[in-house]
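URGENT: need a sanity check before tomorrow's submission.

F., can you look over the Vesicular integral-membrane protein vip36 protein record below? I want to be sure the sequence and structure line up before it goes out.
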Amino acid sequence: MWFASGLSALWLVACAFVSTASAKQYHADPNVRSIQLRTHTLNQPYLDSDMQSRWFDFGGDTIIRTDSYIRLTSDRPSQTGWLFSRVPLTATNWEIEVEFKISGKNQLYGDGFAFWLTKSRAQEGPVFGSQDEFEGLGVFFDTYKNNRPGVVFPYVMAMVGDGQTSYDKDTDGKNQEFAGCSARGLRHATVPTKFRLTYFQDKQLKLELQYKNADDWTVCFDSDEPPSLPQVAYLGFSAETGELSDNHDIISIQARNLYASSTPSDSKKTTPGSQKGRKYDKKKKKGSWTWFFFKIIFFMLLCGGGYVGFTAYRAKQRSHRF
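Structure tokens as predicted:
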């Protein structure tokens, strides 16, 4: 019985270790770990057996091909489509990586698509297919130039909405821009097009793009004074076409919760995502984890042994009574 109890205790510890091991090292900083947010991650085939998604809703002209893409708009005029999470994103620090595709058969094309992290969800409107005067963060992948001299399109820009300010489509949001960059070649790229948005509360908002070469990430913007986002914010996407059109496809969404494993004094030495100025003793960290799990194993075995001994003692007492 002691041996079986010991094995059970070891099994519980092993399960705890596997659960902890699911936290992976963040690609940009060894002092930051990441855990996948399944509630905001979406991959093929996108839908379950009931032809619905457990964590996302979609509507408008959105079409889902379970083996290929979620098409927010097809290459047709006057279309609007959206995709929004059902539950809010509650992580304080997070990273969202999205593979998307913008394509079409016409030489003139538009209008683009948007990424949202907003207080409201799934409301159609005039801003890339979603509502105006939103509260939260919008990142616009604008492929059609209205009136913005000196700027090369496609243009990617972030806007922080306060719930009252409108997006000025006539000037492509020039006065509402928080940060942005030109991304020539984003449409019809020869490699999978992706964006990676990283947010550390009060520390960093960073947008990276992949469209030139595979695994070649271009920093679009990197702000060390990020905006304050709503505590309850839904993740979403939307797109629209007017007289000009394009296919706007979402291929996959990978969402991760980020948390720092360094001490507060270490975190002040540099901004998240940078290894400069940090001392990282892998051997020491590995040893601390080993000692931590050793203590758990010892504690579980001790509890298991005590329980078995107590059970045997009670059984012996009952036998003496008779």
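My own read: Residues 1-21, 263-291, 318-322 have pLDDT under 50 and may be disordered. Residues 71 and 249 are 4 Å apart (CA to CA). If you see anything odd, call me.
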